[in-house]
Every structure is written in C-alpha cells, then in structure tokens.
Amino acid sequence: MAGSPDHLFNLRNNFYLGSYQAAINNSDLPNLSPDDAVERDCLVYRSYIALGSYQESTISSLKEWLADPAIGNNPILRLIAGIIFTHEEDYNEALKHTNAGGTMELHALNVQIFIKMHRSDYAERQLRVMQQIDEDHTLTQLANAWLNLAVGGSKIQEAYLIFQDFSEKYPMTGLILNGKADAKDPETLANLVVCSLHLGKSSSRYLSQLKLTHPEHILVKRASSAEDSFERAVQSVA
What we know:
Elements lengths: L8 H8 L3 H6 L8 H17 L5 H12 L7 H13 L3 H8 L5 H13 L3 H15 L3 H14 L3 H15 L4 H6 L6 H13 L5 H10 L4 H20 L1
Helix pairs in contact: 3-5, 4-5, 5-6, 5-7, 6-7, 7-8, 7-9, 8-9, 9-10, 12-13
C-alpha cells in the first residue's frame, strides 16, 4: 500500500537548495496535518533566518530556551541555534547544539560547520553517517558536494555533477549556480579570490567585483581590515 503523499517535499527542497524566498512564498499549503503545519512553519521561519532576517534579541532569547532543560534538547531548536550561530561565525557554540546529531538536517549542518572550520576529516565522518541513513536524500547529496568542493582536486568534477543533477531536477537557485561556478554569486567570487591566491595569480579582479556587488561579505571585511593594518604599519615606519 502506498504511503501518504509528502505535502512538504517541494517546500523542504526549496529550503535545502537555497531558494528561501520561494519557500516563504509557496508555504500556504492547505489541508496539512498538525505535525506538517508545525514543520511548515519551522521551514518558513528558518528561511527568514537564512535570509538574515533576525535580530540580536533573538540570540539572547535562543540562549534562554537552550538553557531550559524542558526544551533545550529539542532537535528543531538545536538546529535553529546551529544555523544562527553559524551565521554569526561562532562555530564552537553552534557545535555545542548540533554535534549530537539526531536528524539529517543536523548532520548536514555539522558538515557545513566542519568545512568552515577546515576540518574535512570530521565533515567526512558526518557524511558517512548521512549516507548510511539515506544515500539519495537531497541533504546527503548536498553534503557530498560541499565536501567534494572543500577537498578539491578530482573531487571538483564529482561536485559539479551533483549540482548539474540538481539543476535538471529543481528550479535554479544561487546555491546550485554557485556549485556550478556562477560568476556573479558572492561565494563563487570569494572562492575565485582564494583559488587565485593559492595558484599565485592576481585576485584583484574578483576581489574588486566582490567589493562592488557584496560589500558586506566577510572576505571583503577581512581584506579591508588587512589593508588598514598594512597602512598603519607603513605610517608607523614612515
């Protein structure tokens, strides 16, 4: 007997693949069960978080909830905490709440965090757990592509094929385009800056474009800080 239809399948995939506004816009789904309605609302709120729509007071409230033994271990709360602390680049704090895993989304977030911390070995362990649970899950495929990009070398082609498969199945998003090297995506530009430096080539073109189109990107801020420090050092010995 066939199982009941998954009314949230498209909404989840919109969120997983970075189409956050589409997830918000298409969230008005009729006849949801109470459990599905709760999950729908969580996906919508998480889409707002992914778009940066949260305030500092949210972090304060979040810490209070996490300290409450009655709800602090709730997997959705831990996931939201991990997402927000990862956005804030507080990776150790994020891992305090995500590292125990428990859901595919927590495992996938762990992969992201470990990659950001340059610990591809830990990221690979998380990926293996996901593959044992469901090798064909969208998040497992995404995590595999993220890790392949982080490892580099021959793995780059494998990552490209995964994103190519996504682009054929689902609406195009920045996340998919970035995986296929969209030259206008901020993360692609940041990757090009780093790769150019690694190869001993000029990165000024990509950095200038990143400064122009995404002045708040973390790489732009770090580059500006380094330039200011250099100027101060030059002035001190002038």
